[in-house]
Specification:
The structure holds 2 protein chains of 2 kinds. By secondary structure, chain A is mainly α. Chain A has helices at 2-34, 40-50, 55-79, 86-124, 127-133, 138-176, 181-191, 194-220, 231-261. By secondary structure, chain B is an alpha/beta fold. In chain B, α4 packs across α5. The chains are: A mainly alpha, B alpha/beta.
């Protein structure tokens, strides 16, 4: 019986500690962004790694998402004889929901895992300790460029995703299924409002922050994470953990943000 | 000259139910080389990490340059760390950067030295360590001994006041270890830094030491000159000296 309480207690303490660590980590990283000196080269490099290198995967997933939306949307709408609304259906679901979420999930898989593994390896090979001993703030040196790059890249990638998706929907709806070209775009023009785009934009910003926060902090605290400990296995475990946690958080925050912004 | 630059006062540290340091007292003297010896897993590296402020003790004080480093602000701690150089056990080079960038990093991040000057400082330091010409290589392309020497070059690039060596020769053969000792000797006589060395390499490390401290069961047993250490009557030191160096020499009169 005592054992049970002990287990509950240690678990509770661990998770409270973990949450606290991550909160402080986020605070310190965001603080380090505003603190000088500002260096442009690391930022460009990280934006390239997180943003530019993700474009290909975003193009691909965006196109196919738009195409399947066109296909599904056409058949669903045709049940009500409302094929004319295909354009706005595709655009709204992409801009408000699927664009930010799917782009974020793709970036999590591509860049989030890489960030977590990179920082995790730096931690276990004492490179982060070395930075601290050289009086270089790891938050400023490693985290700040990644955070800015993530927050900048995600809205841009989302925009690319949306545009490519709409074109994918166009290819299927207009090209294959015979919806009128004018109808497709005019319905979109009428129904998509500034508020929809704003919502997608805010979501993308938040998701960018969440991905980098979770991936970086999981890697940063690899030595403290339970069952992680040191070594390659520890890094692989926290990397998996970071991807899962980021993905779940993205969907969770998607709901929360939608309910707030709607 | 004999001022303590760093002092550990009654440091205690536990991990879970295991108490690793049980009241460590140690003074590091300015300009001297203090060697910390002891069996594996006794927490020798822990002592260095406490002085560096990488680990906070459960109780006790770490005083560096007259300040308790666990009570001062982060900015002040950073100022103190500016005067530190550290050679980690595995050198802890940044493996995605070239040797040149590794050594240049402290200069780039901590000073406003122009790139031209950085280049000459880095080359000078690499030359001092006998690793000139490796500038564009990555740490993974270097041998263990070279990696340590690059690590030392990086540790010394800001001309630190105290340099910490965590097992500088572990994993190296005798020739490579001697090379490390040689560059250590050379750089210390040029740069006049205080050195703290954690090592297994008894008795050879004694040649470099001004003071030797034995960490045993979480307590520092004496901090004395190598001669005193070898002749000490302290039972733990005697036992350690005998197991690592063989029985003490007995003079002919005693036989």
């Amino acid at each position: 019986m005592l054992k049970l309480f002990e287990t509950i207690g240690t678990n509770a303490l661990y998770y409270v500690n973990d949450a606290g660590r991550m909160g402080i980590f986020l605070f310190q990283s965001l603080l380090s962004i505003v603190k000088p000196p500002y260096k442009i080269y690391p930022l460009i490099k990280q934006t390239y790694v997180i943003g530019t290198l993700s474009i290909f995967v975003i193009l691909f997933t965006g196109a196919f998402t738009g195409m399947v939306l066109g296909l599904q949307g056409y058949h669903t709408l045709s049940k009500f004889g409302a094929q004319g609304l295909l354009g706005s259906a595709v655009a709204l679901s992409l801009i408000r929901e699927l664009g930010p979420v799917l782009a974020a999930l793709m970036v999590t898989g591509r860049a989030g895992s890489a960030i977590c593994a990179e920082i995790g390896v730096m931690r276990i090979s004492e490179q982060i300790d070395a930075l601290e001993c050289m009086a270089i703030d790891p938050h400023k040196y490693i985290m700040a460029p990644k955070f800015i790059a993530g927050i900048l890249s995600l809205p841009l990638l989302t925009a690319i995703f949306d545009v490519v998706g709409i074109l994918g929907g166009y290819a299927v709806g207009v090209g294959l299924l015979g919806v009128g070209e004018g109808t497709y775009f005019s319905s979109m023009y009428e129904d998509v409002e500034f508020n929809d785009i704003y919502m997608g934009f805010v979501k993308a910003l938040c998701f960018g922050l969440i991905i980098i926060w979770i991936s970086a902090s999981r890697g940063y605290f690899v030595h403290l994470s339970r069952g992680g400990g040191f070594g390659a296995e520890g890094v692989s475990r926290v990397t998996t953990n970071a991807v899962v946690l980021s993905s779940v958080s993205i969907l969770l925050f998607d709901y929360l943000l939608t309910s707030v912004l709607l | 000259m004999n001022n303590a630059v760093a002092q550990l006062v009654d440091i205690r540290k536990s991990y879970g139910s295991q108490e690793v340091l049980k009241g460590v007292n140690l003074s590091i003297m300015e300009g001297m080389t203090t060697v910390i010896v002891g069996g594996s897993g006794q927490g020798k590296s822990q002592i260095i990490k406490h002085i560096l402020g990488l680990i906070q003790p459960d109780s006790g004080q770490v005083i560096v340059f007259g300040k308790d480093i666990n009570k001062i602000r982060k900015k002040e701690l950073r100022g103190i760390r500016n005067t530190f150089g550290v050679l980690f056990q595995n050198a802890a080079l940044f493996d995605s950067m070239t040797v040149y960038d590794n050594v240049a990093l402290p200069l780039r991040e901590r000073t406003r030295t122009p790139e031209k000057e950085i280049e000459s400082i880095v080359n000078e330091k690499l030359e001092m360590m006998d690793v000139a010409g490796t500038n564009q290589k990555y740490p993974a392309q270097l041998s263990g001994g070279m990696r340590k020497r690059v690590g030392l070059a990086r540790a010394l690039v800001l001309n630190p006041k105290i340099v910490f060596f965590d097992e500088p020769t572990t994993g190296l053969d005798i020739a490579k270890s001697n090379e490390i000792y040689r560059v250590f000797f050379r750089t210390q006589s040029i740069l006049k830094y205080t050195a703290v060395i954690v090592s297994h390499d008894v008795p050879r490390i004694f040649k470099l030491a001004d003071y030797v401290a034995l960490l045993h069961n979480g307590i520092v047993e004496g901090c004395m000159t190598p001669e005193e250490f070898q002749l000490s009557e302290n039972p733990e030191i005697k036992k350690f000296a005998e197991t690592t160096m063989g029985a003490p020499y007995t003079s002919e009169e005693e036989v």
